[in-house]
Amino acid sequence: MTRLLTLADAVATHARLRPQQPAVRDSRLNLSYADLYQRSRRLGVALRERGLAKGDRVGIVAYNRAEWLEMYVGLAWAGLVAVPLNFRLSGPEMGYILGHAEVSALLAGPEFCATLDTLRDTLALPTGRCLVLGDSPVQGWDGYEVALAAADPDRSCEAVKADDMCALMYTSGTTGRPKGAIRSHGGSTLIAQATALEMGFTPDDTALLVMPMCHANSLYFATTFLHRGGACIIDDRRSFDPEALLRQLAPERVPFTSLVPTHYIMMLSLPAEVRARHDLRAVDKLMISSAPARPETKQGIMALFPNGRLYELYGSTEAGWVTLLRPDEQLSKLGSVGREWAGSGAIRLLDPQRREVPDGEVGELFSRTAYVFDGYWKNPEKTAEAFEGDWCSVGDMARRDAQGYIWLVDRKSNMVITGGENVYPSEVEAVLGRHPAVRDVAVIGVPDDKWGETVVAVVVPHDGQQPNEAELRQWCRQHLAGYKCPTRVHLLDEADMPRTATGKILHRLLRQRFG
Prior knowledge:
Layout: H1 7-17, E1 22-25, E2 30-32, H2 33-49, E3 57-61, H3 67-78, E4 81-84, H4 91-101, E5 103-108, H5 113-117, H6 120-123, E6 130-132, E7 142-143, H7 144-150, E8 165-170, E9 180-184, H8 185-199, E10 206-209, H9 216-228, E11 231-234, H10 242-252, E12 256-259, H11 261-268, H12 272-276, E13 285-288, H13 295-304, E14 309-316, E15 320-325, E16 339-340, E17 348-350, E18 363-366, H14 380-386, E19 387-388, E20 391-392, E21 396-400, E22 406-411, E23 416-418, E24 421-423, H15 425-433, E25 438-448, E26 452-461, H16 469-477, E27 488-491, H17 507-514
Parallel strand pairs: 1-11, 3-4, 3-5, 5-6, 6-7, 10-11, 10-12, 12-13, 13-14, 26-27
Antiparallel strand pairs: 1-2, 8-9, 14-15, 15-16, 17-18, 18-21, 19-20, 21-22, 23-24, 25-26
Helix pairs in contact: 1-2, 1-3, 2-3, 2-7, 8-9, 11-13
């Protein structure tokens, strides 16, 4: 794999062949490939001149902005390792990741400097290794733009190989402390090429990137478009605005975006007259991923975007993309995440003894991809647990039908065992999600003296709706076996439902709150 080109190599090629081709923009900054090439090299030089060596880790904390891509490219060119942090983390949570990764420098938006200042003594970073994005000075931080202006873009660095680490992606910690997944340059290139191949992206395509740039979803699609020479628009709003997104998709005629189910649900919840104002016929490809999508959500998406071809990807930070449900399969295989795609070998579904289960039975999903991660940083035990030979698992449970389609059942860690019976929360969530008053729902298991665990539902109602507990429990009894039905139902406002940066509900925090 040592001959594969890196992301920085790809950007350099496009800067030479099509220098004025749009590369990345947000509401403030508009960069061609020539601009991206120059600025990313200047960043790499600026960091190396501050004493960083090949393989050193660099923490990044910022809201979505165009600079994310030049940071990824610049660090790749200089042989440095990106450690992107979720901007929603608290100071102690950031401190854990930065300390665990042993970062040698920080790149941050000005909004996060005060929080990071409380950690700098612990991190013991030398003077000059903390750069603040933008033009406004922050005491104790070097200006990012000043550092770029002073750097020589023609300075060279030692060669970066495909097997070298390019990013340390910390998982969302849905089951405990986040783990640092080691991603290589070669893996980054291979997943980009597989994505471009399967999705048919061309250099003339544009992607609207809405999800946080610290997340693997945005990183994977951004690198795909940069490898192809396409353009990326970074949605730099601080929080998701469903109507603003429709306003951006319609007049700019953006052909592709990737969103999580929560984003689509928020768009579909807009009043019909608001949705009707926007001409969305130019949207060609839509991706839904990073969390389970209910069938009614998909049907609503296809109605909202009349020419949009809906795809659903299943994957993880560790394995990359594994399966794809294509547009012509959305109705016939509603609820499935598809079958293996170009970058994936045959999936294995294994029982607790690591034996393959027959079609139709539930097993732990093990995937085999060409771009799988290289293990967890400083965690050989968890690395060993994740692999069965060349196959990798992140703890998802699934079944396969006779045609080879994969149906996710739940996370192994979320399964509820009540009175000796296994209950998969996603099955109960699907039933409750069909209730007309329910906007979103999470089902958890909490300790019970009699049954070991009991099933509890946490429901976010639609605006103006206030379903009562008895009504929702009766709804479940009409569709589910008794032992699967919630014994308690709690109502939450949308703002109080704990989520990761990509909209996944944090069942662990709900168990802590309601258990």
